[in-house]
Amino acid sequence: MSYQLVKKARSEATQQKASSLSLEQQQEKINEVRGLLGSLTEEMPSFLSDATIRRFLRARNWSTEQATKGLKETVKWRREYRPDAISWEDLAEMENEARRTHVADYLDKNGRSVLVVNLPMKSKVSVKEQIKHLVYLLEYFATNSADEQDDYVVWLTDFRGWSISSTPLSTTRETMHIIQNYYPGVIAVAIPFDPPRIFESFWKIAKNFVQPNMKEKVKFVYANKPESLKTIADIFDLDTLESSFGGRSTSTIFDINKYAERMRRADKMRGASKDTNGK
Q1: How far apart, in whole angstroms, are the C-alpha atoms of residue 110 and residue 113?
Q2: pLDDT value at residue 271
Q3: Residue 19, C-beta contacts closer than 8 angstroms, at least 6 positions apart
Q4: Cα–Cα distances in angstroms (integers) from residue 26 to residues 22, 32, 85, 129, in the given order
Q5: The whole model's pTM is what?
Q6: For the chain, which has fewer Cβ within 10 Å, the N-terminal or C-terminal residue?
């Protein structure tokens, strides 16, 4: 058996063992991590909730050591980046950027939120601002999910017309670092929709930045392959999904004003529970 097969078998065995933990055993793990974090739980009580600690534990196969390490690194990053302080008003060029990347106004069949990215639409802001927008959305998902729920976002990306300038390798690396290290357990499925053949070469390099458990969540879908489109039908209610992604919805108007109001309401709700870390 090859090394990769052995590694995969061990990972699956660990995940199976983890999934068999009782609620009491899970809480014991959470309490252990809370003890290892020490005073950090007082510094960021809203972030370091049981739900967050559980999410990091699940993403790290219930290793209290690895979860604690990841949480400490995330706390350090949050001190500097302050993702919880980003609001809709802080984002640039949202008339264009929200159309390019936004939270859909529908859920998938499992009640999960949907993040829609339209790569063919050119961004009007710097990479720094694009990352800021992504972090804002990840923070939105993390704070609006059910406390007991992990893997609650379907990431649906339109790759038609993609070129290397659409997503430079450095941007892809930074994006995956943030998602995997600071927001683990948020993405349930990542669907690259109809990527061109040239993307295959890019993916061979880019997937080196993707952790094994995340690679398993990537499902490529091609518009000209009916068997591939079954993935879309299995995940989404086709009556609500845009026709551009293989759905039956004929609505093509993105109401920026309605969307902005929705995000402002979320900001207001989130602002009420921000950590008081010198803010």
Answers
A1: 9
A2: 78
A3: none
A4: 6, 10, 31, 38
A5: 0.88
A6: N
